[in-house]
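Re: beginner question about structure tokens

> Can someone show what the tokenized structure looks like for a real chain? I only ever see the sequence side.

Sure, here's an example I had lying around. Input first:
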Amino acid sequence: TKPFHPRELMARVRALVRVKVLRAELSERNDLLETTNRELQTALEELRETGSQLVQAERLAAVGELAAGIAHEVNNPVNFASNALRTLRSEVEQVEAVVAQLAEMDWQDETRLKGQLAQLDKLRSELGFDEVVGSLSELASIVAEGLERTTRLVGDLRDFAAPGDGPRADIDLHRGLESTLHLMNHRLRDASIQLVLDFADELPPIAGDAGALNQVFLNLLKNATEALDGRAGTVTLSTRLEEASILVEIRDDGPGIAPEHLAQVFEPFYSTKSAGRGTGLGLSMSRRIVMEHGGSIEVVSLPGEGTAFSVRLPIRGRHGED
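And the corresponding structure tokens:
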């Protein structure tokens, strides 16, 4: 046993064996931790993908819900344009008749020319040519306006239906709110809801995904409309600049939200609506979208006094976007 005492030797051997065992356990736990980390990363990626799909599904569900009303909104300008085109075609034919008679004139024979001019004047009088010329511009304007309204509605729909996976850009919030109101006009009108707009004179741009933020505004306006439950009421939409952020508020004068529901309104799949009237994802997705833009969303409601949702978004350059 020299130069060690047997007990010292045994103690050292036990310590070495214990260290070996501990190293083996540590290595095993490290392997398990690495495996768990990989599984967690995979789960997080799947969660992000699922979240993106849910946002898109909620957006498409909202667009689908508005489709009938939008079809009506599109149908009106298309009908105006079609009717104007029929009238325009008829009046162009009258102009063509006058032009054809002008082309047949014999400018060399003075006697014949006088007769042709008399016939042309008679034709002009019969066709009401002076009124025709004046209405051509008006009809063209009607057609142009109808096509412009239809194009704008289609563009608004594309903004809502397209996934928000593109690069962030400068956003005009007023433009987004107006786009949303175009899609909601029929619902507000059918429900006899008075819309009050209180927009700030001018707002600086923010950086973000216009389509995603439009989805937030659409969800909040839908909720405000549904809160009135068919009763005539008022929905107020306001914007104002507050130091480094823009505040958008959507308020209704409906019955309000009961205190026991208020704390849960932003939870996924939570809804106070009857079955088939909502997915319970609208407000949850809205909060996620607003938070991804560096903002916040809050709700204030008292029974019998209505509900107000406030969305606060940072101004361009105040959230590390430059």
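Each token stands for a local structural state, so reading them left to right follows the chain. The chain has a mean pLDDT of 76.
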